UniProtKB/TrEMBL annotation, chains A, B, C:
This is Hydroxyethylthiazole kinase. Pathway: Cofactor biosynthesis; thiamine diphosphate biosynthesis; 4-methyl-5-(2-phosphoethyl)-thiazole from 5-(2-hydroxyethyl)-4-methylthiazole: step 1/1. The keyword Metal-binding applies. Pfam families: HK. Belongs to the Thz kinase family. GO terms for biological process: thiamine biosynthetic process; thiamine diphosphate biosynthetic process. Its EC number is 2.7.1.50. GO terms for molecular function: ATP binding; hydroxyethylthiazole kinase activity; magnesium ion binding. The gene is thiM. Its cofactor is Mg(2+). It catalyses: 5-(2-hydroxyethyl)-4-methylthiazole + ATP = 4-methyl-5-(2-phosphooxyethyl)-thiazole + ADP + H(+). It is an enzyme of class 2 (transferase). Keywords: ATP-binding, Kinase, Magnesium, Metal-binding, Nucleotide-binding, Thiamine biosynthesis, Transferase. Signal peptide: none annotated.
Length: 274, 274, 274
């Protein structure tokens, strides 16, 4: 399946509209290009519908949300729904503030998302609107590990069914599910959390892969999660070998995404499907 | 001529005021520094006049324009005109939305630009306000190649005369013209379009080179286009040799700009003048 | 002392809330992570109090200030004061515009800062509201050198007492003082001023180190200034050895911060205390 998805990406490079935060926006644009797409980054409410209309997918990330951009996100999301484009949501820091909870809840009510991607604390806050005091990182007790994998999978499936979308719960282990099928992905490296933007870039890669594979959103999302994890492993290997730091890690991560192909994916992916 | 322009840059390092998009703003600031200038990045309407007043050049880029910054751009541009500073416009994505067309048209009506730089789709949209559905990349049929070079040159000259400015139409081949003189520049590498910000950085380098060479805007613009192209070639060579990806390419590109000197420029430039 | 401060950083990694400019915001987030903390970057007035409430320190940087964010900065600063968190101010470009002077003066009146960090032109403008026409760089006559070190120290001490905070006046030589104690730090390399964001990153590192060392603000600030200087030296050494440019320098600088430990700090720091 992944071979076909990769081919589609090559044959129909997607235009990916990103409405995202100003912290990692440059990383998002670069990773869309590295992944084989072309990024569009407009966020003014007066033009988001025009931009969505020429796009293949929409990625919404609330990292540094404000009232101006939330309105743009809703408008863009509705237009994308109208046109049948994949729409990916990254509810960054969900649970960390009232504004964040209200904005994300509004987005979820007004827009039908194809994929929602977040760490387990964000996914939990999504479901319960509970308080998450860990900021943008997952709370200790929410991190997906082998000990809690069964209940994590069940929880992710439940949320996927509730919002009728694919859930990508990311962490040391990633869970991707459409409510029925499940991919448990054991790729990646802890150093990925020592640079900013890894999560946002994963979201943009999901948007890119889905943009060329509208009929296989679940598979494209699992492929993106595995690909990012493999790239994290490749980047860490280089950093380790040369005794380098996080600045170099970031560069190697983007390098690896730009060099990703089916062979690397196939050999590197550690995916358990259920 | 370039030798003299380079000397002026060293002798009078310019302060370059950039009002630009939040995607590649960091790249723009870094490339101004790499090119030998000092960047100023203010965009609030209450301070742009103060900032223009201490600057040597102004670079305006509409990449992620919104109503707030368009007003600042107009105000800054008028002040720069009043003070006789070079003003460079980058009409990113011109043609991709109504807001973009209206904003750029307003800028062109209210501000006299010294240089307008864009890919051929943007330059065409500038002239005709026609629809450009390719987003921020040039449409297939607009890319400057040897087959359409004659008509592309004539078109660029016409637009330069119409707006009484230097036009830099960039692509696989760059055309720089003041409406009479023409430089056709065959430098660069396709990998430049696989990172975000190459175009924006080119605009900032034009602003930097013009900032120290106010009486030679046409020549300084041609020099900037050639220099960026050569740096793209140098960066690609390194990436190729080491089998690296786009993250490394970006680093080598900035490295090369920071190491650019007259010797490298003279040996590497492939410029046909008419 | 530094050994203890470093241990605290490891034992209690701080959540650092940064309200900063959109030019170097990505560098700030990455350097907080590199320095051992976790960055929070929210700036909407509706959520800054919630975010401050889960943070260990607040860093305010006026690089691209506008009316929207100044209100958020004041609100966040007051909340941080209420909670007893360290608050660091970076008055970027102070003196370069009326808006900047008024905004920074408002911040200083409404918020009690723990540390104010800037180049000597900014620190002077802070004290006198005098005009600074050099943009974001220090004026020639304000640069701290051995010839003016005595009067620079006395001036910094006076400003520290006036604002009842630690002053970090940065440049070729850094002066850190709480009005009584003084650290004169001779680390760093001129190439640090050839990339954007060095100053902003220093501010974020101060915020990070202070976040885990609330009872030793003066020492943590001196340690941050020395650490950044040492990292600049390490980065320059690599660039020099490989004949690389400013793009590589930036990467090595972030690498070095992420690899900084007590041993490197102890061996590399050149600090004269008074």
């Amino acid at each position: 399946m992944f071979e076909k998805l990769m081919e589609n990406l090559k044959k129909n490079p997607p235009l990916v509209h990103n409405i995202t935060n100003y912290v990692t926006v440059n990383d998002c644009a670069n990773i869309v290009l590295a992944a084989g797409g072309s990024p569009l980054m407009a966020d003014d409410i007066e033009e988001v519908e025009d931009i969505v209309s020429i796009s293949s997918a929409l990625y919404i990330n609330v990292g540094t949300l404000n009232s101006r951009t939330v309105d743009s996100m809703v408008k863009a999301g509705k237009k994308a729904n109208e046109l049948g484009l994949p729409v990916v949501l990254d509810p960054v820091g969900m649970g960390a503030s009232r504004l964040r909870n209200e904005s994300v809840n509004r987005l979820i009510q007004e827009v039908q998302f194809s994929v929602i991607k977040g760490n387990m604390s964000e996914i939990k806050a999504l479901n319960t609107s509970c308080k998450n005091s860990g900021g943008v990182d997952a709370q200790e007790e929410d991190i997906i590990v082998d000990e809690n994998i069964e209940e994590s999978v069940e929880f992710a499936k439940k949320v996927a069914r509730k919002f009728d979308c694919v859930i990508a719960a990311t962490g040391a282990i990633d869970i991707v599910t459409d409510g029925k099928r499940v991919s448990i992905i054991r790729n990646g490296h802890p150093m990925m959390s020592r640079i900013t933007g890894t999560g946002c870039m994963s979201g943009s890669v999901i948007g890119t892969y889905c943009g060329s594979n509208k009929d296989n959103i679940y598979e494209a999302t699992a492929m993106a999660a595995a690909a990012m994890g493999i790239c994290g492993e490749i980047a860490y290997e280089k950093v380790e070998r040369m005794s380098e730091g996080t600045g170099s890690f970031r560069r190697y991560l983007i390098d690896a995404v730009s060099l990703m192909d089916y062979k690397t994916l196939k050999e590197g992916a550690s995916i358990e499907t259920r």
